[in-house]
Amino acid sequence: MSTTHEFRLPDLGEGLTSADLVEWTVRVGDTVALNQVLAQVETAKALVELPSPYVGVVRQLLVEPGTTVPVGTPIIRIEGSEDPHDPQPPSVLVGYGPAAERPSRRRSGITPYSQSAASTTRRPATPSTRRAAREAGIDLSEITGSGFDGAVTAADVEGALALKAPSDDATRLASSGIRKQMASAMVASVRAPQASVFLTVDVTPSMELLGKLRYSDAFTGLSLTPLTLAAKALVTAISSHPMVNAHWDEARGDAVIDDHVNLGIAVASERELSVPNIKSAETLSLVQLARAVTELTVAARAGVTDVRHLTGGTVTITNVGVFGVDGGIPLLNPGEAVILCLGAVSERPWVIERNIEVRSVVTLTLTFDHRVLSGEQAARFLSFVAEMLANPDLLLTHL
Predict the structure, then answer these.
(1) Residue 372's pLDDT is what?
(2) If you average pLDDT over every residue of the chain, what do you get?
(3) Is 370 part of the annotated catalytic residue set?
(4) Of 6, 41, 169, 291, which has the maximum CB count within 10 A?
(5) 299-302: long-range contacts, CB 8 A cutoff, minimum separation 24
(6) The Cα angle at residue 42 between residues 63 and 74, in degrees rounded to 5
(7) Which one is catalytic: 5, 241, 309, 370?
(8) pLDDT (tens digit, 9 = 90+) per residue, 104-132?
(9) Running DSSP on this structure, what letter comes out for residue 95?
(10) 26/32 Cα distance (integer angstroms)
(11) Cα–Cα distance measured from residue 370 to residue 316, given in angstroms and rounded to the nearest whole number
(12) Crossing angle for the helix pair 204-213 and 375-390, to the nearest 10 degrees
């Protein structure tokens, strides 16, 4: 016996009530395996791959790419076995959430469709071109493609965007879901009373240590950078400064210390800034932390970060030094008490025992929530982090 299973858009967590369907990775008639990726959707936080909770044959695609889909909306029908021994979980993600209205396009309403019906009107284009058009608020069906077989190209989208621009030569850039989320987070951030402390430190010993560790088999294929060592120093310092890993409870008007250090890593990519976090970073060795940073950064730049890594952060580190900047004053992530900014490591003249030497120097900036930490607590914490980077022997016992 067989039955047709209807897969609904799962609840992707953290109060997200909808997602944009970016592209299907299956077609009508395809046989799909359990946990095979069916589609890619974009939430306000990241691109997410939807794995199949069923084994069977795709019978109908109910939503067109480019559609904003409320949680709980049926998006695909898969014909599969009714065998009770065949694993068929209702969802491999968070859940389904409440039923909602039918999906609607940003520019106009549509009805569910089969792939054969959609193929007559959908313009051929690459996923990146479709994404660019969607973010610019441009309907691909209104563009005459200049590519092979009438495909719409990135240049066609840019041309259409130029035609939409106001006549005063100003260009309005449509905001993606991720940029809108970042804007909302920054507005929420400035509601907290923030202050910053700075410290410039000689990290020559740390740079020498990194040079040695890169030749170790344990770090083969991993990103081992000043950020990695600074992240380890940050997490290690929290063990003796637990208030750093706290957040302000608005409802009760007091600080709450979190049990685990979920370390956020600010990652810049073509899809704007994201801050995925490493869960329970305090339990990881330097090798494990380097692996986690590498995997998280690669996923963030590819736009496929797991949703669970985008929520629940407790502290953040950001590296503006990769852009050749000496330092900066970062804004807090909402719900966190500190963010550490790492500037560029550069060679500078440095006084050592009244002699001037060329040393590797970096500026550290710590922004903190003044409701949670006093200036003294923040300064002492930053000094401790800097001391471990200046004298990595202090850090080696925690590697």
Answers:
(1) 94
(2) 81
(3) yes
(4) 41
(5) 300/46, 300/265, 300/267, 300/269, 300/274, 300/276, 301/267, 301/269, 301/270
(6) 30
(7) 370
(8) 444 333 333 333 333 334 566 666 677 77
(9) B
(10) 8
(11) 16
(12) 50
